Amino acid sequence: MTDVKMVTLTINKILHGDEIVWGQGNPAFTFTVKGTDLDGEERIYSKTVEFTKENTDTRADVSKRAVFALPAGKYQVQESKVMRYKLEKIDQVVNGTVQGNTVQFDLSGNQNGTASFYKQEKRRWFTDRYRLCAEYCYS
Q1: Most distant CA pair in the chain, distance
Q2: pLDDT tens sequence across 53-101
Q3: How far is it, in rounded angstroms, from Cα 112 to Cα 105?
Q4: How far are the Cα atoms of 2, 92, 112, 113 from residue 96, in angstroms, in the given order?
Q5: How would residue 135 be classed by pLDDT, with cut points 50, 70 and 90?
Q6: pTM for the complete prediction?
């Protein structure tokens, strides 16, 4: 077993504030980190960030942060799909590369990593159709 340094992986979740519909509940997003540390041990971590009405100013883009402390190594970060939002883009990546809907981080040199996942509301008509169906079908 080597003397493995702990590194920090910071994932920023960014939403367009004007697209949050509080009547549908608090937007919550889960990130999963999978990878292998420098000793060859496989690791899996998961964190959820939640936007609440009490601490979110919806006049501009809003953000939350998931911070992972993990042993140096190589990791992949993926965000779980959610019903109301779709991935718009991933950027501001430090010590990693975007591959589709994931980010591959090589933190084996004991450096930290960062990425920002932007979400965009899915089409509003879906929300309005669901609300209309719910009001019509269940009233």
Answers
A1: 63
A2: 987 877 889 999 999 999 999 999 999 999 889 999 999 999 999 999 9
A3: 9
A4: 23, 10, 10, 7
A5: very low
A6: 0.83
Q: Token pair of 5, please?
A: 């340094």
Of 50, 109, 47, the C-alpha closest to 79 is: 47
Three-state SS sequence of the chain: CCCCCEEEEEEEEEEEHHHCCHHHCCCEEEEEEEEEECCCCEEEEEEEEECCHHHCCCCCEEEEEEEEEEECEEEEEEECCCCCEEEEEEEEEECEEEECCEEEEECCCCCCEEEEEEEEECCHHHHHHHHHHHHHHCC
Question: How high is the pLDDT of residue 55?
Answer: 79
Specify whether the CB–CB gap between 14 and 61 falls below 8 A.
yes
